[in-house]
Fold this protein.
Amino acid sequence: MEIKGNVVEEYMSGNTKMIFCDDAYVNKTKEEELEILNRFYQAVWKCAHTLVEKEDV
Protein backbone atom coordinates (compact mmCIF):
# COMPACT_ATOMS: atom_id res chain seq x y z
CA MET A 1 0.00 0.00 0.00
CA GLU A 2 1.36 3.38 -0.98
CA ILE A 3 1.20 6.00 1.78
CA LYS A 4 0.08 9.42 0.64
CA GLY A 5 0.02 12.39 2.97
CA ASN A 6 1.85 13.58 6.03
CA VAL A 7 2.24 10.71 8.53
CA VAL A 8 1.56 12.02 12.04
CA GLU A 9 1.28 8.74 14.01
CA GLU A 10 2.15 5.07 13.56
CA TYR A 11 0.98 2.22 15.82
CA MET A 12 1.39 -1.53 15.89
CA SER A 13 -1.33 -3.81 17.25
CA GLY A 14 -0.27 -7.41 16.91
CA ASN A 15 0.53 -7.89 13.22
CA THR A 16 -1.39 -4.76 12.20
CA LYS A 17 0.38 -1.52 11.42
CA MET A 18 -1.80 1.59 11.60
CA ILE A 19 -0.61 4.78 9.92
CA PHE A 20 -2.42 8.07 10.46
CA CYS A 21 -1.97 11.00 8.11
CA ASP A 22 -3.27 14.51 8.61
CA ASP A 23 -4.03 15.19 4.96
CA ALA A 24 -4.63 11.87 3.22
CA TYR A 25 -8.42 11.95 3.06
CA VAL A 26 -9.48 15.54 2.61
CA ASN A 27 -12.61 15.32 0.51
CA LYS A 28 -14.26 18.10 -1.42
CA THR A 29 -17.44 16.51 -2.74
CA LYS A 30 -20.08 14.05 -1.60
CA GLU A 31 -18.84 11.60 -4.25
CA GLU A 32 -15.31 11.74 -2.79
CA GLU A 33 -16.73 11.13 0.68
CA LEU A 34 -18.66 8.09 -0.52
CA GLU A 35 -15.58 6.71 -2.32
CA ILE A 36 -13.49 7.06 0.85
CA LEU A 37 -16.17 5.31 2.92
CA ASN A 38 -16.42 2.54 0.32
CA ARG A 39 -12.65 1.96 0.43
CA PHE A 40 -12.77 1.95 4.24
CA TYR A 41 -15.61 -0.59 4.34
CA GLN A 42 -13.82 -2.83 1.82
CA ALA A 43 -10.66 -2.79 3.96
CA VAL A 44 -12.62 -3.60 7.13
CA TRP A 45 -14.46 -6.51 5.50
CA LYS A 46 -11.18 -7.85 4.11
CA CYS A 47 -9.73 -7.85 7.65
CA ALA A 48 -12.87 -9.51 9.04
CA HIS A 49 -12.80 -12.26 6.41
CA THR A 50 -9.12 -12.88 7.07
CA LEU A 51 -9.79 -13.28 10.80
CA VAL A 52 -12.67 -15.67 10.16
CA GLU A 53 -10.52 -17.75 7.83
CA LYS A 54 -7.84 -17.95 10.53
CA GLU A 55 -10.54 -18.68 13.13
CA ASP A 56 -9.23 -15.83 15.33
CA VAL A 57 -12.71 -14.49 15.96
Summary: DSSP finds one helix and two strands in the chain. The two ends are 25 Å apart (CA to CA).
